[in-house]
Design brief:
By secondary structure, the chain is an all-alpha fold. Helix content is 77%, strand content 0%. It has one domain: MetI-like (MetI-like fold, Orthogonal Bundle).
Length: 287
């Protein structure tokens, strides 16, 4: 009896400790989000979005150009990274030895840990200066694609790991070659999980500032690039530059509004990935 009471007390103490440690993880991000929305939502209006009646460095054209620039970099990076990620994952699953698979996964995790600003400096040195592509939309797409590539590859490998060995063996017994195995068996099963990872990668590319600050963006003077070799304006760098005008309350309020828009875009892709994952899980558990 005493032993049971002691065990229950220890279990209760453990639960209390876990709850106390979890509270800051939940409360602090929520408080930050609420504060940003509290500051940013009142600043959003058609005038701020369109720039009508506004004057000043960087705000006279509104935010539509920044929104389009952010989405263009995100879409371009996704289009560059997704096929490469799928191909590398399929190669690793089909042809790589177990040792090579482990080394590849380890390398991908290491690449994920590299600070994004390092990729930005790499893009500045190699693409902007050595190749003379200049600060441009294309360079920003390439650098963001490099940043999200490890995430996409790991997600594709995780999606492919969910395919049972029995399915693959059955396909082989029917005489399917590698291409047919991929198109008819693996991809129909793995594509929802791959798409979920792609949505998360798109959300991350929208969150990056330092890499595109060095390689793709300018503060003002560009509404829409004439080509891939022209710079763009983005919400990320717009917030960065406007936040430096701390003495001007009107400009800082616009920065809060831009931050609210950026959070809304990131959450849109994040929640889409969460919804897709839940739908995929629900389909799996159905009899």
């Amino acid at each position: 009896m005493i032993t049971t009471i002691v065990l229950r007390l220890k279990k209760k103490r453990t639960q209390i400790c876990v709850i106390l440690l979890s509270i800051p993880v939940l409360v602090l991000p929520t408080a930050c989000l609420i504060y940003i929305l509290w500051q940013g939502l009142p600043s959003l209006s058609w005038q701020v979005l369109s720039g009508e009646g506004l004057s000043g460095f960087g705000i006279e054209h509104g935010m539509f150009g920044q929104i389009l620039g952010s989405l263009s970099l995100m879409l371009g990076a996704s289009l560059l990274a997704a096929p490469t990620a799928v191909a590398l994952a399929l190669f690793t699953r089909l042809y790589a030895s177990s040792i090579l698979q482990r080394n590849t996964i380890t390398l991908l995790h290491l690449l994920q840990g590299i600070p994004p600003i390092v990729y930005g400096l790499f893009g500045l040195v190699v693409f902007v200066h050595l190749l003379h592509w200049g600060i441009s939309l294309l360079v920003g797409m390439i650098i963001l694609a490099i940043i999200i590539l490890p995430l996409l590859v790991l997600n594709c490998l995780h999606a492919l790991s969910g395919i049972t060995a029995e399915s693959t063996e059955a396909a082989r017994s029917l005489g399917l070659n590698d291409g047919q195995l991929i198109l008819r068996v693996w991809l129909p099963v793995a594509w929802p999980a791959m798409l979920t990872g792609l949505l998360l990668g798109m959300a991350r590319s929208l969150s990056e500032t330092a890499p595109i600050l060095f390689t793709a963006t300018v503060f003002s003077g560009v509404l829409w690039p004439d080509s891939l070799f022209e710079p763009v304006t983005t919400l990320q760098t717009h917030i960065f530059y406007l936040a430096q005008e701390g003495a001007n309350a009107a400009v800082v309020s616009i920065a809060w509004g831009a931050a609210t828009l950026l959070i809304a875009l990131v959450l849109c892709f994040g929640f889409s990935a969460l919804l897709l994952r839940r739908m995929e899980h629900a389909q799996r558990i159905q009899p």
